[in-house]
Amino acid sequence: MAPGDSPEIPASQLTSSQLTSIANGAAAAGPFSSRQLFRIDEALTAADRETGLTFSVYVGGLEEPLRGSAETMLDALPAPEDSVLLAVSPNQRALEIVTGQRAAKRIPDRACELAGMSMRAAFQGGDLAGGIVTGLRMLADRAGAARSERR
User: Fold this and answer.
1) Domains of the chain
2) What are the beta bridge partners of residue 95?
3) What tens digit of pLDDT does each residue of 51-86 get?
4) Which of 6, 14, 24, 88 has its CA 20 to 30 A from that of 61?
């Protein structure tokens, strides 16, 4: 590895239910400490609970085209139309935020752009976990409370 290069970060997809088991010591692989995993888990759980949407985070390499790769991951989720995926590839210095069809009605592209800008600022400061937590909170705030009628 050349000076200034970041270490290769193993890929992992994180959802609130998966994060809890990882944070409790099941498989603490990747760039996050247990404390950071708990922070991300809290943000994921709060975003899911408050909005009624399903938020997921993927950290790892993305295939080209990056956006298409993130959209494929979103489509593989159990309820893609109500899901939001934050795909972060530190080694590629890439971030994609993709929303399902119904989620996009509550989180417009401009809100995703603003969350992405805040996340990138944290990443540039070396705070990967903090950037993810910030993005999750911003997107959840924009989505607002869960709606009783979701059609």
Assistant:
1) 12-143 (3.10.310.50)
2) 88
3) 999 999 999 999 999 999 999 999 999 999 999 999
4) 24
